[in-house]
Amino acid sequence: MKGKIVLVTGANGGLGTSVTQAFLDAGSTVVGTSRKIQASDFQHANFIAMPADATTREGARVLVDQVVARLGRLDVLAHTVGGFAGGKTVAETDDATFQQMIDANLYSTFQMLRAAIPALRKSGNGRVIAIGSRAALEPGAGVGAYGASKAAMVSLIRTVAQENKDAGMTANVILPGTMDTPMNRKYMPNSDFAKWVRPQTVAQLMVWLAGDGGRDVNGAVIPVYGVEG
Questions:
Q1: Residue whose C-alpha is closest to residue 22's, from 34, 33, 11
Q2: Any idea which of 93-97, 171-175, 224-228 has the lowest mean pLDDT?
Q3: Is-contact 10 80, C-beta < 8 A?
Q4: Within a domain: residue 192?
Q5: CA 6, CA 75: separation in Å to the nearest integer?
Q6: Structural contact between residues 86 and 15, judged by C-beta atoms closer than 8 angstroms
């Protein structure tokens, strides 16, 4: 990964922090983005902070344009942005919650893909690695809106994989189980954290998929459920 230009969305989030650090450790130049990202979030010479709202069409377009203008190209999109809302049955779910999940998990992915694909195709071996959820394949009670939005996101990534393989580009999605992040520990304090998926595990998988080892993997939906699985 040395010399590769990697754009990480949600770079200072619970998973994004591990993903950003893993790509930096692998020798990449990493552009980290979120609404409140700062250069001081990562003490590394190859880290560049670019604050943006990548969930909107204009925000995503301007972000990718800035990356290409500054660094000359884009090799990898590591998309970790997402959101969660649950606790109600489908019959009880209100319009606002359903739309919130579509916006956070599907629409944001669509905007980043549409903005980044042209630059990734020019790379000659562009990579897209996105974070889905176990709920995309294994729906559970009380998480209908979340699961539906992640399932649609998986379909979108797999479509991109088929549409861009002619340019040597790949697109894959990782489906983690419950992740050991500070937020999850806060909301589920009585859980057995040792059974949860470590963010570092997912981050290392993303680095592998982005490198030479993952060149033949395209359109894959990869479960990472930890020992709870």
A1: 11
A2: 224-228
A3: yes
A4: no
A5: 6
A6: no
Comparing C-alpha atoms, which of 116, 28, 29 is closest to residue 65? 116
How does pLDDT run across 105-163, given as a tens digit for each residue? Answer: 999 999 999 999 999 999 999 999 999 999 999 988 999 999 999 999 999 999 999 99
Spatial CA neighbour of 171 closest among 205, 214, 223, 224? 214
Give how many domains the chain has, as a whole number: 1
Query: 68 lies in which domain range?
Result: 5-175+198-219
Does 90 map to a domain?
yes
Does residue 229 have a pLDDT over 60?
A: no
Tell me the C-alpha distance between 76 and 58, whole Å: 20
Longest dimension (CA), the chain: 51
In a domain, 189, yes or no: no
Dig out the tokens for 72 from the structure.
């000359």
